[in-house]
Design a protein that fits this description.
The chain is of the alpha+beta class. The chain is about 30% helix and about 25% strand. It has one domain: 3-Layer(aba) Sandwich (Glutaredoxin).
Length: about 220
C-alpha cells in the first residue's frame, strides 16, 4: 500500500510540473490588442509579450525590428533605415508553400488600395525558406499574385537572421516537419504591424477575411 501511495504521489507531482511548464494561452496576441492608453495601440514587452502603453521605460525590452540586412525580390538590400519613418506590415511566407501562404497573401491584397494611397505604408513578406527563395523566385511569386507596387516587398537573406527575427521580434518560431512523406514548414499565420520606429504594435489573424479592414482601421492608432 505504501509503495502504491508513493508512486501515486510521484505521478501527481510530475503531472503538476508538466502543467505548470505549459505556456499560458495569450488570446490578445492573435488579435488586434486591446486599448491600453486611450485609443492607442500598445507595445509588446519582453519574452512574455506583455502589453505596455508606453515605450518610455526600458525601451530596449520592447519587441522591435532593427539591425538587419535582407534582400528584395529585385536583388536590392533593405536595412533598418528603409523601414524607419514608415508603417510596416510583416508576414511570413515561402514560395513553395502548399498551405496558409496563398491565403495570407490573398487576404492582405485587399489592402492594396490603401497601400498605394497611403504614403508611409509598406508590406514585407519575409521568406522562411531563404535557401530556396532567391530574389528571382520571390519576383515570380510576386508576379503570380499580380502585386505591382514597390511598396510590397518579398525578402530573403541569411536563414539564421530571419529565424532570429521570427523568434525574437515576433515570437513566431518556425520549424520543418514531415507531412505525408514530404517536408514542409510550419510558420506563423499572423500579420504583424510595426510603427514608424519599427516597434511591434499589432498582431492580426491572417486567416481572417476581414483582416485588411481591421488593419486599416488601426493605422491611425499609433
Amino acid at each position: 500500500m505504501k509503495t502504491y501511495l508513493y508512486f501515486l504521489s510521484l505521478f501527481l507531482i510530475l503531472l503538476n510540473c508538466k502543467q505548470e511548464s505549459k505556456p499560458p494561452f495569450r488570446p490578445e496576441l492573435a488579435n488586434p490588442p486591446l486599448n491600453i492608453d486611450g485609443n492607442k495601440l500598445p507595445f509588446f514587452r519582453g519574452k512574455e509579450m506583455d502589453l505596455d502603453g508606453s515605450k518610455e521605460k526600458e525601451p530596449e525590452n520592447l519587441r522591435r525590428l532593427s539591425n538587419f540586412t535582407l534582400t528584395t525580390e529585385k536583388n536590392k538590400n533593405i536595412i533598418q533605415d528603409d523601414i524607419n519613418g514608415k508603417i510596416t506590415l510583416v508576414y511570413f511566407f515561402y514560395t513553395t508553400c502548399r498551405g496558409i501562404c496563398p491565403m495570407l497573401t490573398s487576404n492582405l491584397k485587399l489592402i492594396l488600395p490603401d497601400l498605394i494611397q497611403t504614403k508611409d505604408l509598406q508590406v514585407i513578406g519575409l521568406s522562411i525558406d531563404p535557401e530556396t527563395d532567391t530574389p528571382e523566385k520571390n519576383l515570380i511569386f510576386k508576379e503570380k499574385y499580380k502585386i505591382q507596387t514597390d511598396k510590397w516587398k518579398f525578402l530573403t537573406g541569411d536563414k539564421t537572421l530571419i529565424y532570429d527575427i521570427a523568434r525574437n521580434v515576433f515570437n513566431a518560431d518556425t520549424k520543418l516537419v514531415s507531412i505525408e512523406g514530404a517536408y514542409d514548414f510550419v510558420h506563423s499565420e499572423n500579420i504583424y504591424l510595426l510603427d514608424k520606429e519599427g516597434y511591434l504594435r499589432g498582431i492580426y489573424k491572417g486567416r481572417d477575411r476581414n483582416v485588411a479592414k481591421k488593419i486599416v482601421g488601426d493605422l491611425g492608432r499609433m
